[in-house]
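Figure-free illustration: sequence to structure, shown twice.
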Amino acid sequence: MTLVEYTRWPHGAKLRLTNGTQKTIRYVAEHDSTPAGSPILCVEKTSNGWTTASVTIQSITALNPITRQTTEAFLLFDPAAPPKPGDRRVSMLTHDLRPGQSVEFWYRLEPGALPKRVGTICCVPQSALMKKLQPWLDRIEQWCRIKPTPAGQVRVWCPNSLYLPSLQPAASGN
């Protein structure tokens, strides 16, 4: 994911996600007023350093009773605040990117706000071998007390900190 440009009105940044692999990948985004959606990962720079992004996505398979077709849906999940019974969960927007294909996001920024880093989660198809090895890898991660990473999910971050300076003119002392 790369920074393309900043926009002054509306205030924000244009980002580009490019599939540099040989396989079609699927990216996950939040629904907004744009066709591509909005990146789902965001951390802010504070005086203590960068905040942590603890959200993950959960894949579920649903059956359409009318067409009898199954579809895969992705839900945003924050392990720090698990959902309570009765909580409503909204599915994320997903799009496929073929090899070499790109998509552009627009991310809203408030002038003068803390610098941010944004990203999204991409789902990479797993080979048959990886599907067989995954239960063993999960067990090893659990034994070593390593934070598990869902199979085929890759976090893709924009390496640039996004920041718009305040529009307020600096106070001058006379």
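We now fold a second protein in the same way, so the two outputs can be compared directly.
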Amino acid sequence: MPTIHNHTVDGDQYGLRVLRQLDDSEADVLFEHAKRHHEADFEGSVEGKRMNFKLKRDSDGSWTVETEGREHKSGWF
């Protein structure tokens, strides 16, 4: 499992990529929220598509990121 912002995280490869792109202060807020509430929603852009993810704090203290769904390509409808 990769280490991202000092946390070992498993799960969706796109979500891991988006987590790596966060700066340290953004990542701290996201991980702290997930720690307190057992999960945190976030979004990012992968290959030109907006995607939604969920960072989960598992009962054993491990971290998992899941894809929550894809949105349409950015731009006008």
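Summary for the second example: The CA atoms of residues 5 and 28 lie 8 Å apart.
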